[in-house]
Amino acid sequence: MRLSRQIGEALADGLTGKGAQLAARRLARLLAADAVALADCEKLLATAGSLDPDAAQALLVETLDVLEPVTAPPLRAAPLVVSGDLAGCLLVSGDVSDADLAEAADLVARALDHADLVRARERIAEADLRTLRAQISPHFMHNALAAISAHTRTDPERARELLTDFSDYLRYSFAGTGDFATVADELHAVQTYLELQRARFDDRLDITVRIAPEVLPVPIPFLVVQPIVENAVRHGFESRPGTGHIAVRGFSEGPLCVIEVEDDGAGMDPDVAKAILTGSRAGSGRIGLANVDKRLRAVYGPEYGLWLDTAPGAGTKATVRIPRYARGVHA
User: Which 8-state DSSP code applies to residue 176?
Assistant: First the structure.
């Protein structure tokens, strides 16, 4: 019983957490197995003892295909099903019975389910996403209305189009349906926002948006991309003369969805960028970047989030990396 509790504690951060290796060692002790491995739906993540990596990978693929225990002596494997969703696989080597393997897989699945519930409660405590929806920059709203007003006499048709864009943008930003949107929805809102900004700057803002079709349906936390784009406008372009360029790109890298927002503005010291993301630089004027990073890591895990690549005079590239498919994340 004590060892079972310790395995659950070691899996508090999930299969990719720092305790997964310890959990594998404790499982090997519990089962008196020669070796134990924990895997997600792609690869082995933690191993205790000696396993043939090629044989283990092949058994992992087979087990996940049939969704039931598989034996390939000296290896045995069982799928890990958490709240009805496939989470990974438990592999063992040695004299382990079918009943013991099934019981161990159930133990791991229950530990992962408990860890998910704990993290969900932490996310609710850390950030009320409905409140975040309402944090639309007054600076942007004032400037958008000013741009629309400036066009009412000189170009009434453009003013009507901008007013429609502004209405669409506000409707999306204050939407009350769910905590997630698709990449397609987020980028539509971003394009609307950028059109309003381009009108404000008399078309001095050059915009490029390139999105691969396969990432358009990927679910993403609501209002993640727009704060990044707003920072690119305010800090990369607003205070400088001449034309500025902002590029928004979305593409897949294997199982990942990657979104990049790049500007050719002033840039910043990399240490300042790091401080902004950790939230340790108060009064930086960077709108919600630490919050965006925190939300992404809370939803997907510590290996995902927001990264800033920048240097003084070299512009800034903000990169969001999230899994294309994540258990429990639906738009």
Answer: -
